[in-house]
Amino acid sequence: MKKKIDLRNSVIFLVSILFISIFLLFLFENEKYIAINKEYKISEEEISDYIKFSKFQYYELFSPEEWISISKTDKQKEILVKNTINNVLLYKIKENEIKKNGITFSDKEINKYMEMDENNEFKNKLRNYNISENFLKNHIKNLLVEQSYKKNFLKRVNVSNKEIEKYYIKNKNDFIIKKVRMYQIWIKKSKVVNGENKNPKKLAYAAYEELKNGKDFKIVCDKYSQDDRNLVGGDIGYVDKNTVLSQLRDTLDMDEGIYSKPIKTKEGYFIVKVGDKKVITKTLNESNHKIKEKIKEKKYEEQEKNILKENSININKNKLKKMYDLF
């Protein structure tokens, strides 16, 4: 009788040990994940890599100040981390969906894009931000997945004439285009002036000073501007908010004959002068294709929101807060 009890106790003990081992293994396995649902797991590394990559983009394309402005508070950081988690989740879901249609991307295809960086200039910049080459490969794959998934989705989406007409009526003001004749001084590289090598910023402010002192825009443009339009006084024709660089949009509201201070863009420094203005109203027929594309884009965004609702994910709050240190 005692032997039977001992055997039973041994079995119970072994089962308990096995259960605890499985539980601990589960905990250990899930320890590296910041977000989990029934089908998908997102690691801390995936999110930290994308946050570092976002920081890199802001620093290189805009400025450190721009990055700081969107990530000052813990609330801003929380939103950015959650958005990153959602984006990574969407990539995973979309990759699964296109796989069902037999679409995958091989290392060979991905490496073709990697090889475009012949001098490793881009990869070296990424290393400065502690971003690995493996991340870049995965990011390229994700972009290809997104492109393929979106292309297939937009191909399937139908937009009726009624939807197009309703959009046109609701957004009538979007089809009233204010056109402004613009003249520009565009400075993109250093130049020797009076024996002194001046960088683009110095050149732009030197040109601005001459304008302030009463020199004609055409003469200053001919002296400083570094594109072919200096031959016609910097005239770039009629533009609107959709056809100018985003940094120059505010200048469209200036009065006729007024010129701006030097404006820094990733293309160089600009000084712009406003000429005459006109207003054009585009008809429904003229706007048909553009409206159709906009409605398709909106449907795509709505579909992404629905995907996230259907695949709600549990986020580890402690791990989320750990990401704040990356900002």
TrEMBL record:
High-level lineage: Bacteria, Bacillati, Bacillota, Clostridia, Peptostreptococcales
PANTHER family cross-referenced by the UniProt entry: PEPTIDYL-PROLYL CIS-TRANS ISOMERASE HP_0175-RELATED, PEPTIDYLPROLYL ISOMERASE
Alphabetically ordered keywords of this record: Isomerase, Membrane, Rotamase, Transmembrane, Transmembrane helix
The keyword Methyltransferase is assigned to this record: no
InterPro entries: PPIase_dom_sf (IPR046357), PPIase_PpiC (IPR000297), PrsA_foldase (IPR050245), Trigger_fact/SurA_dom_sf (IPR027304)
Listed Pfam families: Rotamase (PF00639)
Name this polypeptide is given: PpiC domain-containing protein
Domain PpiC positions: 177-276
Biological source species: Peptostreptococcus canis
Superkingdom to which the source organism belongs: Bacteria
Annotated transmembrane regions: 7-28
Transmembrane helix listed as a keyword: yes
